[in-house]
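Notebook p. 47: complex prediction with pyridoxal-5'-phosphate.
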Amino acid sequence: MSLTDELYRETILDHYHHPRNQGELNNATIKIEGVNPLCGDEITLYFNADDKTLSDVKINSHGCSINTASGSIMTECVKGQSLENVKEVINTFKTMMLSKEDNTELSEELEELECLRGVKKYPVRIKCALLPWNTLQQGLERLSSGKTDNQDQYVEK
Amino acid sequence: MSLTDELYRETILDHYHHPRNQGELNNATIKIEGVNPLCGDEITLYFNADDKTLSDVKINSHGCSINTASGSIMTECVKGQSLENVKEVINTFKTMMLSKEDNTELSEELEELECLRGVKKYPVRIKCALLPWNTLQQGLERLSSGKTDNQDQYVEK
Amino acid sequence: MMNIEKIRQDFPILDRKINGHKLVYLDNAATSQKPNSVINAISDYYKNNNANIHRGIHTLSEEATTAYEDVRDKVAAFIGAKETKSIVFTRNATEAINLVAQTWGKTNILPGDEIVISAMEHHSNLIPWQWLAQERQAKLRFIELTPDGLLDMESAKSVINDKTKLVAITQMSNVLGTITPITELSKLAHAHGALLLVDGAQGVPHLPTNVEEMGADFLVFSFHKLLGPTGVGILWARPELLEAMPPFLGGGDMIASVWRDKATFNELPWKFEAGTPNIADVIGAGAAIDYLMALGMDNVRAHEIELTDYALKAFQTLDDVKIFGPMDAKLRGGVISFALDHIHPHDLGQILNESGIAIRAGHHCCQPLMRDLKVWGTARASFYLYNTKAEIDLLIEALKEANKVMGHVAYR
Amino acid sequence: MMNIEKIRQDFPILDRKINGHKLVYLDNAATSQKPNSVINAISDYYKNNNANIHRGIHTLSEEATTAYEDVRDKVAAFIGAKETKSIVFTRNATEAINLVAQTWGKTNILPGDEIVISAMEHHSNLIPWQWLAQERQAKLRFIELTPDGLLDMESAKSVINDKTKLVAITQMSNVLGTITPITELSKLAHAHGALLLVDGAQGVPHLPTNVEEMGADFLVFSFHKLLGPTGVGILWARPELLEAMPPFLGGGDMIASVWRDKATFNELPWKFEAGTPNIADVIGAGAAIDYLMALGMDNVRAHEIELTDYALKAFQTLDDVKIFGPMDAKLRGGVISFALDHIHPHDLGQILNESGIAIRAGHHCCQPLMRDLKVWGTARASFYLYNTKAEIDLLIEALKEANKVMGHVAYR
Ligand SMILES: Cc1ncc(COP(=O)(O)O)c(C=O)c1O
Ligand SMILES: Cc1ncc(COP(=O)(O)O)c(C=O)c1O
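Predicted complex, structure tokens below:
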């Protein structure tokens, strides 16, 4: 199996070709764009939430397979979850992607994320995988700050 | 005789230590500054002239030996000369300094300039020698343009 | 005719192995590789002549000054400029455009004036004019493209008018490869009293370029795309324009006399070069010009037409491929943007890299063009004088492989 | 303690012969020489990893990006900056100062505000403030020097007041060698709500430097004076200042999203780096930091104090010599400006060059200071880590010779 085959393992390709929760949410509590200026990936994330639960989420991706799959799996992992849980999921995923060691454990509900672990070997692609998550994180910050003016843009660093 | 000895031959040192026509001319027809931004040499040139003759000239030099000597000898060569002659002298000197060949002939009246011929071997110093002459040339241009506002600065290139 | 195999030996990086494969470098529109003569010019300078220039009287400083200033003559000869003093060294093409916008622009653009660029400009030839237009309450207008990606001269005629003060246009598109009709544009602009700035970042490295024949008023380009080092760009402008422009950055070397409260400025071109310049790389840039002049830009261009023609035909043997830009190699440079139906360019770039093939993927700093093309990015292969048909064959093979890796699922 | 003979072997140019003599390079305040590790870092990059950065997905681009960005960490560590994103690469110190003047300055300086610099600033730390003051109808004020060439803190206290918005000051004078009391100035400036910009062009290469200890808000310097290549300067600023500053030059790489009529900008530090940066030389600059960090800046400073002390004493054995600046080597760097009574500095420079000794002569880009000192220029010998006492002996010998060549005629 070549490195590339490993990267593009089936789960990623499945989510890339059939992304879940794609599209727009009318009257979303939060609408936020995420941009990776270095490669041009852009996503728009919509979600409905009160101060406890993230009840619905949709994403409009125009990125590469990693970016699209990561966003697709993310929506599955966070939809209907308590905000507390959502934050924990974000943390788990970011730790998995950014820590030097490769020993982050994924619980059963998150095991779909497993397929993205291979991305760590390709440093330039890590940002592709992180963009939806960082955008969600910024969206949550906006939610808790009460500034829901829907003008925000998250720019990947 | 080392290269340096040759450069600092006696005539130059004499003019450097006893520069001729140094100082200011009150109510000069033309007063013009000359600057070499690269080394900081600055001179101020004063002369009286009508449309035919350069009747008097003074120079205020703060430059190196080459610059000071060149200005000093220049004043001797041009003082009291017809403007036509002055232009010719300027041309002769500039040709001597700038031509690739080393065969510019100097007439008897100009033979004091001979000592500056050695400067040609030191390309950075050529500008030191040229500054008074280029400043005089620009001053003459101002004279003939009628703009005698005494605000001019010649900047060596 | 150039001997490409011999040329390749001058470029040490071409022996590099990537993932076990010999490097196939097809990212020349981003930056070119460098011949030994350029690399050595830089290290020889540091080993033998390094000194600060202009203000020094010792031997090293004199040698460094001469070597640095001599490159100005070479650049002038290379682009057919009549006067050495019209050559200003900058960091890159981007800085050169900003210099013009901030000096010429701020003294010449008034409210209501119009600045004209095209739909395919690089961000570097867009953002400075957006800012200038905003600041001066001027209008930024766009020449559109024809459906096959050429500059639409009808559109040019309709947007350039007597309010136009500047037409700023790329000589060759870094996305579509399109070569623009500079001489025609020059006539059009000048007929309306406007000036013409040519963004030669892509054009100058690949096309014989003569500022007089083009009828340009400003030309900018970057040496890193022209076999030269990073950190050196050129602004050429007609000397009378440069004379009239206020200085750009202030500091050492660009002054004549300085007092606490005022200063007078140095002559051209030094008025525009503040502080210690990038001496070593300018000298390296001189070696790049020597290299290209020895080959002849006509030969470089002929080789690239041949390669591009070959590549355009080879691409058409692929399924599901879309090529952006003109299909006639004579109307374009060796920059081929393309898309495969089911593979995002970013993925494609990575898959090709597994075979040692370096292409670029993304918006190529031309987001407005991407929006017009209704894509989020393209894959781009771009050639230079050391590329071969065999390398294009490898590219095509690898693209076929990629279709397999990513599957032919016709979704999204 | 450093082994100077071993260090000298790292600098190939020190074997250079000038007019039959071994080069004695005492023009380090103008630019430093480069060790092999720096020269090789640049050529190795071109031979193995050269690519455009940030936007590429292929191996070379990834390697180049990593190598380039890693230098930011090194620079941050070298100057004690806490955040990598606070390091902006510029062409030189001059550009960095202009950047601050044109972005921070234009958004923060209002009519009636005051900008304070000192009487000994380099033109690069003067002209940008002259322009800003003129444009904003602000006032440029000067801290004077004490008779022995130190910064006069009484004067500082009298010119810095609540109208002061910025104090911009050299860390070490390139003419007098004077080291300024940055920490004290920082307290004084901050007490009045002003910011402190430190021109570290001379200081950073020679003194252990820590932005936090200094209490600086901005620090600029140039790598060519710090064993590094030409074409790389640094702007460090407190991140919250950089965040609030508008961008400087517009173009590729500094944007986030671009439309025809507007754009959003990239994160720090890239917001301030428009167009293709000087990649190779930044990587070379990283090698320069490695070299200095391995030696230890404390050791560099100790060596230079020793040399300077030796030189100051040796100078006093000469007739008719005047030294400008403080006479205590601990209060100054290894930059010695001097005058011989009857020899113009320009002539002196040339005479020393006959013996292979490279010094500088002129106004050293400090014309206002020259006017204050009532001279048209000075001769200047300046040291770095590879200089030796034996070289100072050669200098003193040659100065005695010069007195003979030019004669002792006490005129003018
Ligand atoms: C004190 C000081 N500031 C600023 C500069 C300007 O540095 P650069 O020419 O590298 O921009 C210099 C060097 O000449 C200097 O000595
Ligand atoms: C057409 C065009 N213009 C301008 C630029 C900017 O060049 P640089 O990044 O060297 O300033 C580029 C290169 O990226 C380009 O392709």
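Notes: Chain C has a mean pLDDT of 96. The longest helix of chain C spans residues 59-78.
Next step: compare against the earlier run before touching the bench.
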